[in-house]
């Protein structure tokens, strides 16, 4: 097993194990019968880590959630959760290797961090009856793997709809949105952006740019020639978000700026450029702890305390990476806790297929019906933020439900 312990686990965990061994030896010497501990529930975690693209914070967030579940919630059905970690490098071969390992180690569930090659692993997992879950699907096959994959994060379409509805609420009737010039982006614009924009009453101009090679000064200059009242994107990576916002500020643009799920621009560009930028997430931000009440406020406090207990609170930032996969860990516990009886791959698959639970630090999870037709996301809830004085603050009145904008049929 390639399990990595947190810094916070090493001391107390080792002491507890040593004490248990000494106690067991003493009981055995006295002739007392020693009850076997319940077997662990094995969950596989595959993630791109250690290579050119390395995202350890996703694993750390998930493992911190598992530690909290085991220490504070008694595991699942009285059984501790054991994480079988398998790193990938984004290649299909590495993802296949992880799938085979999960089958060999009899995991009951596969959880994905970010694994670009994960589509190649799906046939192996499906043949073994092992469900794939995670926050979001990161491959085209995962997005449509209905009945075998269930992702607890918000549907991609929800982020786009939140942007368009926010533009309308702010009085912006003309918007320019940037997209990577790839076939899936064109499909997304024609299938989601255009029909929703028309129903909401926002005129959207889609501008496409070459992935990884955009001259953002030129792209922005061309976009601003149409005098849009709102500019942004529903799916840029952080480097492009930073370049886009920097170019907009340099051009003197003072309309609405929408940065979707990006967060790195806040620290990189500073408050002068970042303040006023709108962004979207499917979780309530840790910076809201103490300012937001109810279930969300309580769960944010639990998250921060659990990350500190695991010794990884230094990765709690304005970003949602560690938080997102901590949430996945708690959501997995919530779903597995609905199982009455043996916890195995079959019962876990049934639990996910019928899952209707609160989403930790978010809205709700309903895996009985796709959040968007034909896709594997289980949540439709997103929240819109505004950056103010370098901090993430609420812009929308809580979570936005995209149900009214679902396509008919």
User: How are strands sequenced across the largest beta sheet?
Assistant: 2-1-3-4-5-13
Count of strand segments: 16
Tell me the name of the CATH class of one domain: Alpha Beta
Q: At the fourth CATH level, what is the homologous superfamily of one domain?
A: Response regulator
CATH architectural category of one domain: 3-Layer(aba) Sandwich
Element-by-element helix/strand order: HEHEHEHEHEHEHEHEHEHEHHHEEEEEE
Low-pLDDT segments: 1-24
User: Percent helix among the residues?
Assistant: 40-55%
Count of helices? Answer: 13
Largest sheet: 6 strands, parallel
**Quaternary organisation of the protein chains:** single chain
Q: What structural class is derived from the secondary structure elements? A: alpha/beta
Q: Provide the residue-averaged pLDDT.
A: 90
N-C termini distance: 46 Å
What fraction of the residues are assigned to beta strands by DSSP? 15-25%
Shape: globular
Give the radius of gyration.
23 Å
CATH topology of one domain: Rossmann fold
Descriptive report:
By secondary structure, this protein is of the alpha/beta class. 42% of the residues lie in helices and 19% in strands. The protein has a domain at 157-281: Rossmann fold. The longest helix is centred in the N-terminal third of the chain and has 24 residues, at 7-30. It is globular and about 80 Å long. The protein starts with 6 loop residues before the first helix and ends in an 8-residue tail after the last strand. The model is unreliable at 1-24 (pLDDT under 50).
